[in-house]
Amino acid sequence: MRKSSEKLKIILNHKMNLLYKELNEYIKRTNKIKKDIIIAPSNIYLLEFIKSSKHQISSQDVCYIDGGDNTGKVSWRQIKSLGIKYTIIGHSEKGDSIQSITKKIKKCLENDITPILCFGNENKKELITNILDNIEIYDSRIIYAYEPLYNIASTDLDIKDIEKNIKIIKKYLNEKGIADPQIVYGGGINENNIKEIYNIKEIIGIMIGSKSSDIDELEKILLNIDEK
Questions:
Q1: Of 10, 133, 142, 161, which residue is the least packed, with the fewest Cβ within 10 Å?
Q2: CB 151 within 8 A of CB 162
Q3: 9-222 CATH
Q4: How far apart are CA 189 and CA 147, in angstroms?
Q5: Would you say 115 and 87 are in contact if contact means Cβ atoms under 8 Å apart?
Q6: CA angle centred on 78, ends 53 and 112, rounded to 5°
């Protein structure tokens, strides 16, 4: 177990949620939460959070291209110019190729942006080591976000299965030369299971999806955990 003084990261991936009229109340209430939080709002709200939130901010994705004629994309240079130090990469909802994920991660690492790399198996029979073999990116600066697809939006998590795979991931990354890998878990987290997940000793944090954009729901979830 980690010392009680060590705070775990809580990554909030809003996805395509939260309306403009809800921003002030959300920021005001999250500012009162005394935990190590990284908020990933929609791109249209990044500046609002940067200006008013007390927490670290992440983008939900990034483009590895420096700039130019790429309608709808946001480049790493634009993200960095806002002072943002984190970005989510490879989320299953994006459908990125391994080649694209690799380019994004390399560009971020070259420019002091911490990638939150999402990956996961589609079912319990699929070996998580096979997924990691495909990624082929091993760096202590990366936050490895394990999000098994079969747990996303689930209300009945197999905690033993999660813990088993996280131990496998840590051992695998150790063998790739990362002595103390940054691993977080995401998928199906709610107020009933968060304490068990949060206390898995091999992780440095958790990642909460859509529920994190509902401030009432978020507060209920976070009330159920203590620091390690």
A1: 133
A2: yes
A3: 3.20.20.70
A4: 11
A5: yes
A6: 80
* Three-state DSSP state, 55: coil
The residue ranges of every structural domain in the chain are 9-222
Signed CA dihedral, 82, 87, 194, 93: sign only: positive
**Predicted TM-score (pTM) above 0.90:** yes
How do residues 7-30 score in pLDDT, each as one tens digit? 799 999 999 999 999 999 999 999
Give residues with Cβ within 8 angstroms of 169, minimum separation 6: 128, 132, 144, 146, 181, 183, 202
Q: What are the catalytic residues?
A: 91, 147
Query: Cβ(113)–Cβ(80) under 8 Å?
Result: yes
**Helix H segments across 82-119?**
98-110
Instruction: Provide the CA 213 distance to its chain's centre, in angstroms.
Output: 14
Separation of alpha carbons 55 and 114, rounded Å? 15
CB-count burial class (<10 Å; 0-12, 13-18, 19+) for 49: buried
pLDDT digits (tens, 9 = 90+) for 113-135: 999 999 999 999 999 999 899 88
Residue type, 90: G
Of the CA atoms within 13 Å of residue 222, those in its CB half-sphere come to 26
pLDDT in tens, 165-208: 999 999 999 999 999 999 999 999 999 999 999 999 999 999 99
